[in-house]
Amino acid sequence: MDMQTSFLDRLFESGLLIDTGVDGLYGRSGQFEDVITAFERLIDTFGGADGAEAMRFPPGMNRALFEKSGYMKSFPQLAGTVHSFCGSELDHMSLLQCMEVGDDWTKDQKATDIVLTPAACYPLYPTVAKRGNLPKTGGLFDLQSYCFRHEPSKDPARQQLFRMREYVCMGKEQHVTDFRQRWMDRGVEMMKQVGLDVTIDVANDPFFGRAGKMMVNNQRDQNLKFELLIPITSAANPTACMSFNYHQDSFGLKWGLNLEDGSVAHTACVGFGLERIALALFHHHGLDVKAWPASVRKTLWG
Length: 302
Ligand code: ATP
Ligand code: ZN
Ligand code: MG
Fold this sequence. Notes:
GO terms for molecular function: ligase activity. With about 300 residues, the protein is an alpha+beta fold. It has helices at about 5-15, 30-45, 65-70, 70-75, 90-100, 125-130, 175-195, 210-220, 250-255, 275-285, 295-300; strands at about 15-20, 25-30, 55, 60, 80-85, 110-115, 140-150, 160-170, 200, 225-230, 240-245, 265-275. Helix 2 (about 30-45) packs across helix 10 (about 275-285). The structure holds adenosine-5'-triphosphate, zinc ion and magnesium ion.
């Protein structure tokens, strides 16, 4: 038994996170949200002059497009689908009967046209592809969405419903890799301004199964994914608070994203884990925002 009160327990006790009875599903206090709002303003000051087109999608996406994305090939263990009751009055009666006796009432639920969004950029690619060729300047988009991943955990930094702020860039290889490098530099600078020590390292996604091993190796060998890491729950295993992904032309090919000259677009995305950044701030500077260093408060609230 761990005799120390865990960080999660302290977050519950302080009211910053609100227990719902499900690991990784938390309410957030006004104070917690205020930190996220302030940090997003900081993101805006770094990225605002780039002229990204802002779009906000709800936390559910078109199931047909989700199927086309190939998510179930790579991460079936993380996906969440929305199912609903679609039956008759008779079916309703047996549903209630099932619930009454504690049987599994969910087995007759039918899949709807909606699945939970796994990453903020997923609904973007088909949306942009529908417009036709990209303009000469390529594409730059500013997104934020709640995302779902079925990975219940006692680690407060691993939630099942959390927000991801993203910038997505589409263009030629050099253009999008420059974009990614610029955000790595900005990420380090932003975290410095809020008093957080970071490291950047190559990373990989948790591709499922034996076939996934090859994809992990490919992703690492080609430096397709980097993470900005900050210690939250463990000093030895710092937490990824930002990720920087270069997709080469794979999303361009999959979704039919073409540049003005008709060539296939390369894409890259950078993601901020907003809850993780807030938790890193609370972990490092303490649970009482009023006691945070003046320089950090000034960066966040002016
Ligand atoms: P990890 O390696 O910790 O599982 P990830 O590689 O799965 O992270 P991405 O898929 O790159 O993360 O998602 C973009 C960002 O979203 C991450 O850098 C992180 O800050 C945040 N994020 C990812 N998963 C979670 C989660 N379960 N809870 C909270 N934030 C998350
Ligand atoms: Zn993305
Ligand atoms: Mg993950």
